[in-house]
Amino acid sequence: MLSAYPELVEFLPCKSPEAWVNWAIENQTLLLNDHAHCEKKAASTAMSLMYRYVDRDNLLHKMSRLAREELLHFEQVHKLMRKRGVAYEHLTASRYADGMRKHIRTHEPARLVDTLIIGAFVEARSCERFAILAPHLDEELSRFYVSLLKSEARHFEDYLELAQEYANEAIDDRVAFFRELERQLITEPDVEFRVHSGPPGVN
After folding, report:
1. Count of CB atoms within 10 A of residue 158's CB?
2. What is the DSSP code (8-state) at residue 136?
3. Contact at 8 Å (CB) between 198 and 109?
4. Residue 16 and residue 187 in contact, taking contact as beta carbons nearer than 8 Å
5. Which DSSP helix (H) or strand (E) runs through 186?
6. Of 144, 155, 151, 26, nearest in space to 81 by CA
7. What are the phi and psi torsion angles at 109 (to 5°)?
8. Exposure class string for 118-140: b at 16+ Cβ within 10 A, else e
9. Contact status, residue 189 vs residue 198, Cβ threshold 8 Å
10. C-alpha–C-alpha distance, residues 155 and 116, integer Å
11. DSSP assignment string, 87-116
12. How many CB atoms lie within 10 A of CB 24?
């Protein structure tokens, strides 16, 4: 499935650990719950960028579309949850997003560039995980995750293109910095399962 998105595969530093895939299969209720949270957070991130950077025309255009799509995905996940009797509950945040965001530089435009690069990694990893999970899930859930791949892949490209547009310099070094950080966060063990967690560790 991911063969249709070679740029995304090249962008990510590693495949998801097999142990994470098995963990997800064993925790599908939690998978759906956290997935819903992820879609809502993604919409919120896009809206936050629109409020903060009102003078960036291309950002406003792309983030407006992205926010609408993420909210639609949230509605779709929530509908699946209701159909399956899965309660939508509060969850603690995974260390993935916080682990990336604590390295955001505080001056502009570096702050915006780092935020956009992180957004690209989040979207790319989401796409990769939906693709590797789809063959292991029931038909309805598998079909739903496959349907998300195209938009998630486009979101990754939008974030990366915006980062380059507003950087005023090459972003290769910064992308490489966050790629290594992402690899660590994805491969190091976690005690709580999340869509973006590492493999299971020891409680």
Report:
1. 22
2. G
3. no
4. no
5. helix 172-187
6. 144
7. -85, 10
8. bbbbbbbbbbbbbbbbbeebeee
9. yes
10. 11
11. -----PPPHHHHHHHTT--SSTTHHHHHHH
12. 22
92/46 Cα distance (integer angstroms): 21
Distance between alpha carbon 10 and the CA centroid of its chain, in Å? 16
Contact between residue 24 and residue 41 where contact means Cβ atoms under 8 Å apart: no
Beta-ladder partners of 200: 190
Cis peptide before 109 (omega within 30 of 0): yes
The single-letter code of the amino acid at 166 is: Y
pLDDT tens, position by position, 21-68? 999 999 999 999 999 999 999 999 999 999 999 999 999 999 999 999
- pLDDT tens, position by position, 175-184: 999 999 999 9
- Domains, the chain, with CATH or none: 18-187 (1.20.1260.10)
Are the beta carbons of 43 and 71 closer than 8 angstroms?
Answer: yes
pTM of the model: 0.95
| Long-range contacts formed by 82-88: CB under 8 A, 24+ apart | 84/32, 86/29, 86/32, 86/33, 87/33, 88/33, 88/36
Residue 4, both tokens: 């249709």
Task: Check if the beta carbon of residue 24 is closer than 8 Å to that of residue 133.
Answer: yes
